[in-house]
Automatic annotation (TrEMBL):
The keyword Ligase does not apply. Keywords: Membrane, Transmembrane, Transmembrane helix. This is Putative membrane protein. The chain crosses the membrane at residues 12-31, 37-60, 67-90, 102-124. It holds the Pfam family Phage_holin_4_2. It comes from the Bacteria.
Length: 132
């Protein structure tokens, strides 16, 4: 359970940094926008992203496996951008959360989010490894 929480926090921090770096990706907090609301919004969006990526993302990767081989994995950029757009759509249904300005902003945001999450994961690998 604690590994899940650490991964959730890593994804939330990576999402926060992505919104600072990529102009077309932003997060709209719920409520009056105080610090607690902003943190909870990032955690909620990171949770939605984890569920979408874990369930739908894995299903797409299994079904589209021949396309991954054919394109040497470049289709993953498109799939990850679409998954980020899906997270933005789901969070818009609840009235707050992730906003992506377009498909290519989604692709760029997914690339930056993946790189930042990977880098934070490398730095915190001893912490994540100890929580098993």
């Amino acid at each position: 359970m604690s590994r899940f929480i650490v991964r959730l926090i890593i994804n939330a921090v990576a999402l926060w940094l992505t919104t600072l770096i990529v102009a077309g990706v932003s997060v709209v907090p719920f409520g009056d926008g105080d610090t607690t609301a902003v943190v909870l919004t990032y955690l909620l969006v990171a949770l939605i992203f984890g569920v979408v990526n874990g369930v739908i993302g894995n299903l797409i990767r299994i079904v589209a496996f021949p396309l991954y081989i054919l394109t040497l994995g470049l289709i993953a950029l498109i799939v990850n951008g679409l998954l980020l757009l899906l997270v933005a759509w789901i969070s818009s249904l609840i009235g707050f959360g992730l906003e992506v300005d377009g498909f290519w902003w989604g692709v760029l945001g997914a690339i930056v989010l993946g790189l930042i999450s990977w880098l934070i994961g490398i730095v915190l690998k001893p912490l994540v490894g100890k929580t098993r």
